[in-house]
Amino acid sequence: MRLLCGLLLALATSLPAQQPEIRQYIAQSWDVLARSMSDCKSVVDQKVRTTPILYLPAGMKTPGAVAKMQAECHVDVRSLPRPIHRLGDVRPSEIPAEGLLYLPNPYVVPGGRFNEMYGWDSYFILLGLVRDGHADLARGMVENFFFEIENYGAILNANRTYFFTRSQPPFLSSMIREVYEHPASGQQPDAAWLARAYSYAERDYALWISPTHRVGATGLARYRDLGEGPVPEMADDSTYYPDVIRWLLAHPGVHPEYLVTDTSASCDATASKVCAQAVVDGHRLSQDFYRGDRAMRESGFDTTFRFGAFSGSTQDYAPVCLNSLLYKYERDMEHIAMLLHRPNDANLWSKRARARRAAIDRYLWDAKAGLYFDYDYVTQRRSGYKYITAFYPLWAGAAGPEQAAAVRAHLKDFEQPGGLATSATVSGVQWDAPFGWAPVTWLAVSGLDRAGFHADAARIATKFSATVLAGYRADGTIREKYNVVSGSADVQVETGYKSNVVGFGWTNGVYLEMQDLLHQ
Predict the structure, then answer these.
(1) DSSP label at 311?
(2) Beta strands in 299-368 (DSSP E)
(3) 184 pLDDT more than 80
(4) Would the CA dihedral through 251, 256, 258, 262 be positive or negative?
(5) Rounded Cα gap, residues 59 and 61, in angstroms
(6) What torsion, rounded to 10 degrees, do the Cα atoms 94, 69, 107, 473 define?
(7) Does position 278 have pLDDT exceeding 70, yes or no?
(8) Nearest C-alpha neighbor of 517 from the set 174, 125, 15
(9) Which alpha helices (DSSP H) does 34-74 contain, by range?
(10) Which residue of 7, 389, 454, 496 is most buried, as measured by CB atoms within 10 A?
């Protein structure tokens, strides 16, 4: 371990010398990962491998660029069955032929099997785009989210028809502020743009306080997908659900309620190829497990044992991450309302933020442990599962000085030679130890820096940057995730997504942000 730390430190000190090479890779990656409605590679979906179909909003005339792509790329262009005003207005089952949803502006995809514009990925991609001088592309991506809200009812998990039942972690207010206020973003959009952005952000926020996402009378929110059964995008990983069943059979004392033998208590094998494959020796996954599995995917943390085995109980929790994001959302909206000279709106947002912070302190803050935990509102207990999202309240500004200091004292539970592990638990899945991910590492680093722990922030940024650099020097790529114990891109996942995708949008963006922090 000491030798590994020394090697990573040596890499860290060599970062400046490596900057031109890795920066060039990142600069070129924006073009490699860029997609548009005039580009044949945009419509390919490795997750379901069906004939490329592009869907337009109901009533929309075919744009010229789409007509050209239709002819050149042999794309089947169709219209959605009716206008969509909110999440759930159209069910994926009503659109049996899965396809890409039209977006008006170019966008950057994460990479690999993720060949569409994602919700929370885009925030970290946008950070890199603005930092790297692509403000117009960043603004276009934010406006694509406005288009989704207007035409698809919400910011979707990603712009595919099978995502019509869920969103992703709410970063829209943060993206709006990055585009409008970031000193590196170039020419600032005008007040009319900000007012338009504000109206769409109001509509996005409304989703998260709706009854579907509300956690009883706690004042907190949860993740919740409106669909049922296994997700169709797992068609390219037909072993995932059987692997989960085999794990549960091997651990009979862990969530036995997730397994059933009665087919009527599971999913419809006649309606879903993925469901038909999700069986081992007559055992299937319960309907409630699939609800948790879907909610987990809205959280973006797929997969972790944070919300039960394979997060099969996600819908039962008020998570630290989501409620921290919503607290920041409310403070962002207060700030934007003031910029727009709407003091009454600003007061309303301030009131909402104060109420949410009180709920976070009541339900998610464990004063004895000195850490934030997710709250299981079914059992009415905090989970006790140590997770990197405990640093989100520092980033969001929801943690007081004493709380921030207490969370900082738990760095020892997460810090490894190559950065921060996602959890303190080795579960064999990708969103737990020993793996580290760029987005949550950046929020922890940024949160520590905001709370005044600058040396900790710099140290962790140096470690994670060195890990990314080590992976780049090994094979010339930047990856989706890393093993922060070995300080490498050697990621061995036992169950779930086993690949380590090349690209990678959010790692590129976070690397640039960390370098800027270290230079400061």
Answers:
(1) G
(2) 317-318, 365-366
(3) no
(4) positive
(5) 6
(6) 110
(7) yes
(8) 15
(9) 64-73
(10) 389
Pairwise CA distance, residues 314 & 297, whole Å: 9
What pLDDT digit, counting tens, does each position of 111-126 carry?
999 999 999 999 999 9
Looking at the whole model, is its pTM more than 0.85? yes
**Residue 305: what are its φ and ψ, rounded to 5°?**
-95, 15
- Could you write out the three-class secondary structure of 357-392? HHHHHHHHEECCCCEECCEECCCCEECCCCEHHHHH
CA atoms within 13 A on the CB side of 512: 24
Which residues are part of the catalytic machinery?
302, 480
DSSP one-letter string for 437-452: EHHHHHHHHHHHHHTT
Count of Cβ atoms closer than 10 Å to residue 516 Cβ: 13
pLDDT, tens digit (0-9, with 9 covering 90-100), for 190-212: 999 999 999 999 999 999 999 99
Domain segments of the chain: what residues? Answer: 28-186, 233-301, 414-519
7 pLDDT above the threshold of 50: no
**Coil/strand/helix, residue 458:** helix
Reduce the DSSP state of residue 52 to 3 states and report it: coil
pLDDT of the residue at 495? 83
Tokens found for residue 274: 């993925």
